[in-house]
Amino acid sequence: MSTSPADFNAKVIDEFRANEGRVGGMFEGMPMLLLHHTGAKSGTERVNPLAYLRDDGRYVIIASKGGAPTNPDWYHNLKANPDVKVEVGTESFDATAGEATGEERERLFRAQAERFPQFDDYVQKAQGRTIPVFVLTPK
After folding, report:
1. Cβ atoms < 10 Å from Cβ of 103
2. How far apart are CA 10 and CA 137, in angstroms?
3. Which of 57, 74, 82, 106 has CA atoms 20 to 30 A from the CA of 34?
4. Helices assigned H by DSSP within the chain
5. Exposed, middle or buried, 74 (CB in 10 Å: 0-12/13-18/19+)?
6. Dihedral of CA 2/112/61/58: which sign?
7. Model confidence over 81-122: pLDDT tens digits?
8. What is the C-alpha to C-alpha distance for residues 134 and 60, in angstroms, rounded to an integer?
9. For residues 66-93, average pLDDT
């Protein structure tokens, strides 16, 4: 019996909160945050566990969706509603999400792929989709 993405995320979120922001399994050793965002169509609050990279006081997340040919749902939500809440470790704060473009996008994606090579694998799997990069700037 397979686990739905929602069930998988719920388990990761529970583990994150029980272990001060650390999770194991496929995310062992990877910095993780919880992104609270608002559904573009539904207006419902959603929470996604995501790998992140720090960049000059900001948090960088990548809309890889494991290399799927389409963007994750949270991508559309951030484009429609850039005001988010972020949990990192035991802290939470409000932030504004903005999509990185051009050289900044390339620099940030490369930095994450150098740390975690699976991001390069996602590029191959994405079938030509440019994987979006978002910067979360604390308010």
Report:
1. 8
2. 25
3. 106
4. 5-18, 73-80, 102-115, 118-125
5. buried
6. positive
7. 999 999 999 999 999 999 999 999 999 999 999 999 999 999
8. 6
9. 96
DSSP state of 132: P
The answer, yes or no, to whether residue 3 has pLDDT greater than 90, is: no
Could you identify the residue written with the tokens 């900044």? 104
Cα 27 to Cα 30, 97, 137: the distances in Å are 5, 23, 23
Residue 131: DSSP 8-state:
P
Q: How far is CA 9 from the centre of its chain?
A: 12
Distance, in Å, from the CA atom of 62 to the CA atom of 132, rounded to the nearest integer, reads: 6
> Which residues are bridge partners to 37 per DSSP?
46
Distance CA 2, CA 79 (A): 31
